[in-house]
Amino acid sequence: MDRISIIQSLINANNYSSYLEIGVNRGYCFFNIKCKNKTGVDPRFEIPLWRKWLYIFKNTCNINNNYIEKTSDDFFKANKNSFDIILVDGLHTFQQSYKDIINSMQVLNQNGYILIHDCSPISAASAQDVESINEAKKHPEYEGDWSGAVWKSIIKFRQEYPNIFTAVIDTDHGVGIIAPHMKSTKQLSKNILLDQLHYSDLENNRKELLNLMSIQEYQSYLNHLGQ
Ligand SMILES: C[S@@+](CC[C@H](N)C(=O)[O-])C[C@H]1O[C@@H](n2cnc3c(N)ncnc32)[C@H](O)[C@@H]1O
Hints:
Blueprint: H1 3-14, E1 18-22, E2 37-41, H2 49-58, E3 66-68, H3 72-78, E4 83-88, H4 94-106, E5 108-116, H5 133-136, H6 150-160, E6 164-169, E7 175-183, H7 199-204, H8 206-210, E8 212-213, H9 215-225
Helix pairs in contact: 4-6
């Protein structure tokens, strides 16, 4: 399972009709999602017109796509719509990813989900809190992966909203899942100071810090939804 199949499984299980993706890039995820109304937000879409047409043929849901060429902050300022399911996958800094999650909470429909990509980086080089891949590449141990500091947003969110179910599914660089309609059973101590937290702490304590969930656990949760 990857982020696309996780999002699609929740859309199918709940009959959702509106999907928002923050950070779309070339549309690898966005185009493949099957949902009636899809909105994509990115300050620099990398999608030529032919690709939009191609994906209308491959997935007819793309005929209604709403492309908003703005930063997430500008989008949330002007937006008047609400959504059943949201993927946060824009700028991967701690500050911006946390802001995107909080803004998403304000526009999420009841019984909806927020998914967050890149929550479980595989190395210190991949976990850098920088603004672009070019900056990330300067790290001496950089090996092609850059997830950024989104993992810190998961920890902060768990501290600030201890009663909301938050977990990271252990696949595809970590797919965060926030379900405001579900109660959390595992709380995280407020004593963990985020500005003193390093990648080594995550490495040593990944399961507890992220509330890491295996694919098998996610699948049994899904089966439970279908009952
Ligand atoms: C990792 S890519 C998204 C990948 C895409 N979600 C997928 O799964 O295929 C990150 C995207 O975020 C966009 N981005 C950067 N800053 C942003 C911001 N402030 N608001 C929204 N998107 C932003 C970039 O332009 C880039 O296209």
